[in-house]
Design a protein that fits this description.
The complex is a heterodimer of chains A (160) and B (375). Chain A has 160 residues and is α+β, with helices and mostly antiparallel strands. Chain A has helices at 2-30, 74-78, 117-121, and strands spanning 56-58, 66-67, 84-92, 98-108, 128-130, 144-146, 153-154. Chain A is elongated, with a radius of gyration of 29 Å. With 375 residues, chain B is an alpha+beta fold. Chain B has one domain: Orthogonal Bundle (Cytochrome-c3 Hydrogenase, chain B). Chain B has helices at residues 57-61, 66-73, 81-96, 102-130, 134-155, 177-200, 203-209, 217-223, 227-232, 239-242, 263-285, 339-345, 347-350, 356-366, 370-374, and strands at 16-21, 24-25, 30-31, 33-39, 42-49, 164-165, 168-169, 306-314, 317-325, 333-337. In chain B, helix 3 (81-96) runs antiparallel to helix 4, helix 4 packs antiparallel against helix 5 (134-155) and helix 4 runs antiparallel to helix 11 (263-285). The chains are: A alpha+beta (160), B alpha+beta (375). The structure holds iron/sulfur cluster (2 copies).
């Protein structure tokens, strides 16, 4: 007799628990404004990343094409996986001394782990985070970038 | 004359046979291969084969300086990335006897707990999906998204943050951080009731998990099963209680212990832990003291020669970091004692005699993260 009752109470309990769950899903079904799906490629124009978003490492240049990098190579030594290569150049100064400048600041996005050590360790704040995140390309070599723009030079107020 | 060959007739029900579950299997949540020996549908024994995602992180640490090691620990248990970072930072601070500012301790503790909630939410999604409830997956991920948004606003990334540095933090928290966290707690307190309605109370889920994969307290201790899985068996192993770090000693929270040690209890442990984590965050979020976000550290960090060990409570259990230093700026040897590896060792023991479908449930309740096992 006992098992007979248990059989029916089990069925009742099962249906009740299912209905409790379906109450939740039903609520979302009838309140579509609670749905949070983003239509990604369509909303591209409106999509705004947070200010601190780590998309890629960039070197900001001002309007006159000046950057702040002295070519000291500290970021290169601090990078844990060799994503940064610094190629230095020497130029003759008017007073006869030679000065070190940056020739190429090469950044391999494909190897970067976005740890932020280069940006934190740069003594002259030459690097920053960029907001671009759509990095897919057809060829891996396109992921190696030269961060200092062609024709750019170092801003005057930086002293080493 | 015709020859009669008497082939022995094998009874397929009685014979043992082996199948490979994984390396690519949705319920192993990564590249883990389980060689399961079956008799009919019953699991006779099981052998995990690890190493499919071995990257040699411990070896790589030997060439990296201490600030550089942080970004590698992110990639072990990626679901509790902050907590892994915390372990290395605490170890370096302990070795150098640096006192970090009170503000850093508060922020780290809050973020660790947020990370724990996010990790348990993802576990809840995937556990629900392993049991056949796809709805859970969407709801869990939706709520995890709220935490990831807070993370993204403050530290710029969603999964692998590298936010802690030895001595403090990479940068200060975003001005919106406190408000975001408070909003999230208010939101999630409501939503966690949905979790209970959908999955915890579900009779199908309960029937499939109650009494399945029982791990006794003795076995939990001898296998070293820790974290929520070990506490489900009544093994009190919460590092936050036993060896407090951060400001856990200032927060009032309970260490939740179960006694059945079955799959359902392991499930309940994590549901309770999410609530406890919210309680911790609520107590701390308004009291973050003002101050510096990092202690003064030397540009090149060198640990004095010797051996160091530091443990923290990651989302899946105790994570230990062991360093042998010879006084250089890179460690001589680094060893991570990861919670998932020891939790996996008990899988063979607790899944003997269950049906193969229950193996999926047991695996889900142990909540292993494969990159942490292989490192
Ligand atoms: S980016 Fe900064 S750290 Fe790197 S070479 Fe230029 S100045 Fe030095
Ligand atoms: S973010 Fe880290 S990995 Fe990337 S270039 Fe900078 S230091 Fe290297």
């Amino acid at each position: 007799m006992n098992s007979f009752f248990k059989y029916f109470t089990d069925i009742f309990r099962a249906v009740k628990s299912l209905l409790t769950g379906m109450k939740v899903t039903g609520r979302y079904f009838f309140s579509p404004w609670e749905i949070v799906t983003q239509q990604y490629p369509e909303n591209r124009n409106k999509l705004k990343m947070y200010d601190r978003f780590k998309g890629e490492v960039i070197m900001p240049h001002n309007e006159q094409n000046f950057h702040r990098c002295t070519g000291c190579g500290i970021c290169e030594t601090n990078c844990p996986n060799g994503s940064i290569e610094i190629i230095q150049d020497r130029i003759d100064m008017p007073d006869g001394k030679k000065k070190r400048i940056i020739s190429k600041h090469i950044y391999h996005l494909s190897m970067c782990t976005f740890c932020g050590l280069c940006i934190k360790s740069c003594p002259s704040n030459a690097l920053a985070w960029g907001q671009k995140f759509e990095h897919a390309v057809y060829d891996r070599s396109k992921l190696s970038k030269i961060l200092n723009q062609p024709g750019s030079s170092i801003i005057k107020d930086i002293v080493e | 004359m015709k020859e009669v060959i008497n082939l022995p007739v094998k009874n397929i029900e009685e014979e043992e046979y082996h199948i490979n579950m994984g390396p690519q299997h949705p319920s192993t949540h990564g590249v883990l291969r389980l060689v399961v020996s079956l008799q009919g549908e019953i699991v006779k024994s099981l052998k995990p084969h690890c190493g499919y995602i071995h990257r040699g992180i411990e070896k790589m640490c030997e060439k990296d300086t201490y600030p550089q090691i942080i970004h590698l620990t992110d990639r072990m248990d990626y679901l509790s990335a902050h907590i892994n970072n915390h372990a290395v930072c605490l170890l370096v601070e302990k070795a150098l006897e640096v006192e970090v500012p009170e503000r850093v301790k508060y922020i780290r503790t809050i973020i660790d707990e947020l990370n724990r909630i996010a990790s348990h939410q993802l576990w809840w999604c995937s556990f629900g999906m392993d049991m056949g409830g796809l709805t859970c997956f969407f709801y869990g991920l939706r709520d995890r998204e709220k935490i990831l948004d807070i993370f993204e606003e403050s530290f710029g990334s969603r999964l692998l943050h590298s936010y802690y540095t030895p001595g403090g933090l990479m940068m200060d928290i975003h001005p919106n951080f406190q408000k975001g966290v408070k909003d999230f707690i208010k939101y999630f307190r409501k939503k966690i009731k949905d979790y209970d309605d959908i999955l915890t109370g579900n009779i199908i889920m309960q029937e499939r998990t109650k009494g399945i994969g029982v791990l006794t307290k003795e076995d939990a201790i001898s296998y070293g099963v820790i974290g929520p899985s070990g506490r489900a068996s009544g093994f009190s192993c919460d590092v936050r209680k036993h060896h407090p770090y951060g400001v856990y000693d200032k927060a009032d929270f309970r260490e939740i212990l179960g006694n059945d040690g079955d799959t359902f209890t392991r499930y309940l442990m994590r549901m309770h832990e999410m609530r406890e984590s919210m309680k911790i965050i609520e107590q701390l979020i308004d009291n973050i003291p003002a101050g510096d976000y990092t202690a003064k550290m030397k540009a090149v960090i060198k640990l004095p020669a010797g051996e160091y060990y530091q443990r923290v409570e990651a989302a899946r259990g105790e994570l230990g970091v062991y360093v042998v230093s010879d006084g250089n700026k890179t460690p001589y040897r680094m060893k991570f004692r990861s919670p998932n590896f020891s939790n996996l060792s008990a899988l063979d023991h607790i899944s003997r005699g269950v049906k193969i479908a229950d193996l999926v449930a047991i695996g889900g309740s142990l909540d292993y993260v494969i990159p942490d096992i292989d490192r």
